[in-house]
Design goal:
There is one protein chain. The protein has 2 domains: about 200 residues, Rossmann fold (3-Layer(aba) Sandwich), CATH 3.40.50.2000; about 160 residues, Rossmann fold (3-Layer(aba) Sandwich), CATH 3.40.50.2000. By secondary structure, it is α/β, with parallel strands linked by helices. The chain is about 45% helix and about 15% strand.
């Protein structure tokens, strides 16, 4: 069996530097498909250079011309068309939203190739109008909103409407799409884990991992840190836009913050492994990869807004603030972040996020749906 995966930044994820959660999950799916016996080809719009091979996965780069508009029309589009139309495959897979993915979506209908669209965020389950309104509220500029968010919302609409299989990460996303008469499959994010991590002794610091951006709750994070000067915080992630740069300046002059910038995934896991807890203050997520990475190191999650399918509370995987930042501040101040039940975490990961049998489960759900 053959599968072609379309995306941007997947190569970076495969070498341990994922630009974001969608890219990390796509790289994990690519490896899982390969381990299951698939012939896997990745078309990566982000990188330039010659085609390469990582762990038996073929990666095609589609960007080398320095002028953006020429690169788009004379390299990216022709390469997408070529590998969609003239290379035989059984499945197309996309995880992120980019208007260029409408090309393989159209070709999948012509060639009867099974198209899988895996949703990465709750916002992608909203209606076209609601998604546009949300993206406008968090826009960097009106020009960027018109140039990026408008086409993205249009693309998301068509992907949801015409994909053969739509994968969602939670019951919440499933119900959102069900109300719109869109048939979906619940297939949660996957994560490799090592049960030996249960034996590690935690240190007395808290960690934030993610983009340094307004939408990620950085303003709330700074408020929290200011209220607890006696606790140490490690912040990992790259700044986005002027807001991110200004936030980094504040990090660097705050005594109880250690800002490390963007790190490779191996180092990220190491910091998580020894941390007291992972902090997440974002309002809109799907099922954050950082949650899974934390639990794979048996580290609790402290989340202000995000509690997908109530897993944090139902499985005792950390602290859920239910939108009340003061309650989270109180928990941290009083050192009320108890260690999670390691056996319970292991049972949860094996049941819902198991990497080893991921594709066997996925194929069963796709073809029995």
């Amino acid at each position: 069996m053959k599968i072609t995966i379309f995306g941007s930044g997947i190569y970076n994820a495969l070498i341990g530097m994922p630009p974001g959660g969608a890219e990390l999950q796509t790289s994990l799916f690519a490896k899982a498909f390969k381990n299951y016996g698939f012939d896997v080809t990745i078309i990566d719009n982000f990188k330039s250079g010659k085609s390469t091979n990582i762990e038996g996965i073929k990666i095609i780069f589609s960007a080398s011309i320095n002028i953006k508009i020429l690169r788009y029309f004379f390299q990216r589009i022709p390469r997408i068309i070529y590998y969609s139309l003239f290379k035989n495959t059984h499945y197309f897979f996309v995880r992120s939203v980019n208007q260029i993915f409408l090309i393989p979506l159209l070709i999948s209908k012509i060639k009867r190739i099974h198209f899988i669209y895996s949703i990465s965020s709750n916002i992608d389950c909203e209606s076209f109008i609601k998604r546009l309104i949300y993206s406008y509220k968090v826009k960097v500029s009106l020009i960027n909103w018109i140039k990026n968010d408008l086409p993205s919302s249009i693309t998301n609409y068509f992907l949801l409407k015409f994909a053969d299989s739509v994968l969602v990460q939670s019951n919440y996303q499933f119900e959102k799409l069900k109300k719109r008469d869109i048939k979906a499959i619940i297939f949660r994010n996957i994560i490799p884990f090592n049960s030996d991590n249960r034996k590690v002794i935690k240190k007395d610091y808290y960690v934030y991992i993610g983009s340094i951006a307004r939408r990620k709750g950085i303003a709330e994070l700074l408020k929290l840190i200011k209220e607890i000067p006696e606790k140490q915080f490690i912040i990992i992630g790259a700044p986005q836009g002027e807001f991110g740069k200004n936030a980094v300046e504040i990090f660097n002059r705050t005594s109880n913050i250690k800002y490390l910038g963007a790190l490779n995934r191996e180092k990220v896991i190491e910091y998580l492994l020894y941390s007291k807890a992972l902090i997440n203050l974002s309002k809109v997520e799907g099922f954050p990869n950082t949650f899974l990475e934390a639990w794979s190191t048996f580290t609790p999650v402290i989340s202000l807004y995000v509690n997908p399918d109530n897993v944090i509370t139902d499985y005792n995987l950390g602290i859920y603030g239910n939108g009340n930042i003061n309650s989270i501040i109180k928990y941290i101040k009083l050192n009320n972040i108890n260690s999670i039940d390691n056996d319970n975490v292991l049972k949860y990961l094996k049941k819902y996020h198991n990497y080893d049998n991921a594709i066997e489960r996925l194929m069963s759900k796709i073809h029995n749906n």
